[in-house]
Amino acid sequence: MTSFDNRFSKDVNDSNLKGWLVAVLELGAWLGVLLTGPVADRLSRKYTIVAAVGVFIVGVIVQVSAMHASSIYAGRFVTGIGVGSLSMAVPLYNAELAPPEVRGSLVALQQLAITFGIMISFWIDYGTNFIGGTGETQHEAAWRIPLGLQLVPAIVLGVGILWMPFSPRWLVNKGRDDEAIEVLAYARNLPREHDLVQIEFLEIKSHKLFEDELSLEAFPDFQDGSFMSNLKLGLYGYLSLLSSRPLLFRVIIGGGVMFFQQWTGVNAILYYAPSIFTELGLTGNSTNLLATGVVGIAMFLATIPAVIYVDKLGRKPILYSGAFLMAACHIIVAILTALHANNWDTHKAAGWAACAMVWIFAMAFGYSWGPCAWVIVAEIFPLSVRGKGMSIAASSNWMNNFIVGQVTPTMLKNIGYKTFVVFGVFSFAGALFIIFLTPETAGRTLEEMDEVFGDSNRTAAADAERLTRIHKQLGLDTFEGRDVEVGSEKEDSSKHEHSI
After folding, report:
1. Which stretches of the chain drop beneath a pLDDT of 50?
2. Are 76 and 28 in contact (CB under 8 A)?
3. Major facilitator superfamily (MFS) profile domain: from which residue to which, for each copy (predicted)?
4. To 10 degrees, what angle do helices 348-367 and 315-340 make?
């Protein structure tokens, strides 16, 4: 926006500084992801969300009141810490509180909500862009208002979560079993003595005993509960992922999927869409922001069929088809830009064709790598290391997000159309990575994943045997196959076994 450029012209127009202005938020998010695990275990998922919202609000206030670029940089970094923390804590809380039969839907719904938020934010920017005019008369409220509007959902989340229950999984971990049963009964709207409530409680309890047994066997010297012992448990737990070739291979797949998700260039498009549309010949802030708004709509609408069909079509076909389509869009944009970068005015049709390719790219990402990358990462790790494996993948996601955000302005300035060639090549390589290295996870059990990764130790099979023994120890096996009524419907209790 013109008023933003005028306020910070010396610090945002340089391509390198502009990259840092955008990417510093992702750097903060990366740090937030790393900090969230220990904090969520100690404070609870609920209060971790409150704390993350508080950090986020501080960052927003610093940005809204900024008179110098340093405040924007600092505010975005602090805001990023909150964003990264929430990106871990909120899905964790949802997964641990929701009944098993809707947990899969919530994963897809989260991605749909993210794309909905992106779409709304683009159109808010388009609307506020007209405050005081779009040129030199534009008022600073044009950019301060959308920055300030971030406070609204943050406050709703931070205050609203106070009326929500604690995670039953966290309560069990803290030895507060009676409270955990109360929360499960509340979430189900069933009496605490109901079979489904008891089944879910015993499943959570068995998972806790499962982790305690693994920890005691692997690290008997670090069980005194002290800070240093807990720190060493966490460190050695991560190192164990590197000591086994099959586990290391899973880490490479998880980190690689997130690497290629970011290097498709999706966030280069989302962060710099107005600048890119300017490069493609669309002049005027309002026109650029209008075209950017279409990106948000395209991505949101394309995510909807992914939510519906991800389990029916499989992960791999969706991912590599999306990658090939994104690669084609990048290459077409690169060709059009190479031919007409200096004469878009006389080749308006080519400019609009390039814009259409950007919109198609957004749709391709929306139905494929947006939701499916997270799904496949969640399914490749055995139970005993899933949390640590997922955290590594999330860290890879945010770090590559940061790198892409930082280098994109410099790439656009120095190599022009070749920027799209680079992202096109990475998109194509991502498709090959999925086809030749990444296994299909849809419909496969954890034991079958052992075979896929050549795990001679049968990590998942051993996990399953251990879990079965613990189930019997707790009496959970007595519920197996029993039909239990929920309102006017009946459910087979065996379907809840997947909730672990």
Report:
1. 486-489, 493-500
2. yes
3. 1-442
4. 160
For 462-494, the DSSP string reads: HHHHHHHHHHHHHTGGGGTT-EEEETTEEEEGG
Helices 103-128 and 69-97: angle between axes, nearest 10 degrees: 150
Is residue 341 within 8 Å of residue 298, measured between CB atoms? no
> Is residue 390 within 8 Å of residue 377, measured between CB atoms?
yes
- Start-to-end Cα distance in the chain: 49
Tokens of 98: 């929701």
Where b means 16+ CB within 10 Å and e means fewer, 487-500 reads: eeeebebeebbebb
To which H or E segment does residue 274 belong?
Answer: helix 266-279
Q: Cα separation of 420 and 325, whole Å?
A: 13
Q: Which two tokens stand for residue 139?
A: 């008022």
Cα(244)–Cα(12) distance, rounded to whole angstroms?
Answer: 46
Length of the chain equals 500
Q: What is the pLDDT of residue 255?
A: 93
Tokens 């029993």 locate to 482
DSSP β-bridge partners for residue 491: 484
Tell me which amino acid residue 133 is. Answer: G
pTM as predicted: 0.80
Strand duo 483-486 + 489-492: pairing:
antiparallel
Contact (CB, 8 A) for 242 and 257? no
pLDDT at 499: 39
